[in-house]
Amino acid sequence: MTNNTVVSMENIHKKYVGTEIETHALQGVSLTIYQGEFVAITGPSGCGKSTLLTIMGLLDSASDGSYQLSGIDTTGLKVDQRTHVRNQHIGYVFQSFNLIDSMSVYDNVALPLEHRGEKPEVIKQEVLAALTKVGMQHRVNYKPNQISGGQQQRVAIARALVGNPDLILVDEPTGNLDTKNGDAVMKLLIELNKQGSTIVMVTHDSRYSGLADRQIQLLDGKIVGEKQLQSDKLQTNNLQSDKLQTKSEKEVA
Ligand SMILES: Nc1ncnc2c1ncn2[C@@H]1O[C@H](COP(=O)(O)OP(=O)(O)OP(=O)(O)O)[C@@H](O)[C@H]1O
């Protein structure tokens, strides 16, 4: 493991044990993700993508295998220890936004920093900076149900990136959005990655997975393929939205 390794997983298994059936959702996944990468996880429905992201995000633990996050061995951590590490190191963006409706945009984004026990002045500065990054600084006092779906996802991204986590995990970020808003959210994620965020994204949408640096393909709980996507990025230039500019275009410009 090198200094710039963010995720190091070795032989991860996950079994969901029910009363009658047992599902072996991950069957020996090993992978390494480096600082600054934008990685897409793809594969058919039920192949284990969300399970993998959930374990990477320390929302659940593996049944077997080892997982180091930013050099911290997370194997065998108790739930509260896992929560602590997650809060320090991970931002999570969900398909359904998962904002708290009774709280303002500002308070939603402040939550991770409050859990970290940051000082109010630090919180204010960081929250406004995160909301400015996603273009939502003009809606600080709104409630989630007073803004559009695309705007809610922007706020959720601000909540994920506030406090500068080592890793941002994104599960089907455009699944509840129309093409225009989906493209805008993708463009924002690409921009954040350009600014240094390490991003791992689960998506069904090949237009979007093609924008990542690396694509990891899962099938039946196993990694069955992996590709670097420099050349594929060029093919995404003719996406129907002219607002979605790929990294390759930006690098050429
Ligand atoms: N909490 C759970 N309890 C039992 N089985 C589960 C649970 N979560 C997922 N599974 C099973 O584990 C397997 C992998 O599910 P997972 O949600 O990770 O797949 P996915 O690739 O994200 O699917 P999709 O693209 O449809 O969201 C599936 O067979 C699923 O039914």
Automatic annotation (TrEMBL):
UniProt biased composition (Basic and acidic residues): 244-253
**Superkingdom of the source species:** Bacteria
In this chain, the stretch annotated as Disordered covers: 234-253
The molecular function GO annotations come to: ATP binding; ATP hydrolysis activity; transmembrane transporter activity
* Name of the protein in question: ABC transporter ATP-binding protein
Q: Where is the composition biased (Polar residues)?
A: 234-243
Q: Which InterPro entries match?
A: AAA+_ATPase, ABC_transporter-like_ATP-bd, ABC_transporter-like_CS, ABC_transpr_LolD-like, MacB-like_ATP-bd, P-loop_NTPase
In this chain the ABC transporter domain maps to 7-245
Q: Which family does the similarity line name? A: Belongs to the ABC transporter superfamily. Macrolide exporter (TC 3.A.1.122) family.
Tell me the keywords, alphabetical order: ATP-binding, Nucleotide-binding, Transport
GO CC aspect terms: plasma membrane; transmembrane transporter complex
Pfam families assigned to the protein according to its UniProt record, in alphabetical order: ABC_tran
